[in-house]
Amino acid sequence: xxxxxxxxxxxxxxxxxxxxxxxxxxxxxxxxxxxxxxxxxxxxxxxxxxxxxxxxxxxxxxxxxxxxxxxxxxxxxxxxxxxxxxxxxxxxxxxxxxxxxxxxxxxxxxxxxxxxxxxxxxxxxxxxxxxxxxxxxxxxxxxxxxxxxxxxxxxxxxxxxxxxxxxxxxx
Length: 171
Prior knowledge:
The chain is an alpha/beta fold. It contains 2 helices and 7 strands. The protein has a 7-stranded mixed beta sheet with strand order 1-7-6-5-4-3-2. The radius of gyration is 18 Å and the shape is globular.
């Protein structure tokens, strides 16, 4: 059975990377006190989480809460709890908190059945309850981290590697 990490409150919920642009590894991290859970993800997943959070925030009645400094750099050293698969999002009206659930990736076959006797119901998960300020801070941090990658080529829009770029439009 997978590990279930539940945070009713977090001190930090952030996104960070390890490595150089072009070969970065992305991580989402939640921390409460000394307890840290780190989840490996893809760049597109990180951007999608920020987009989903932004949509939820825009659908909520206006709030005077400002973005907090809770979206900071990754706390190190860390061990990766799991690789990100499905993402769930909700809103708790009573507590005015955004619920974000990150679940472990489980490989499936062509019919959607788990491979290698892996049971999708037994996957690890990270569940966090975020304030509006924490969600907004995560979105701002995600924008910065995602855009800090390789710049796009002005002619073909493919990323330019630090070692150069063979543009297919400039053959």
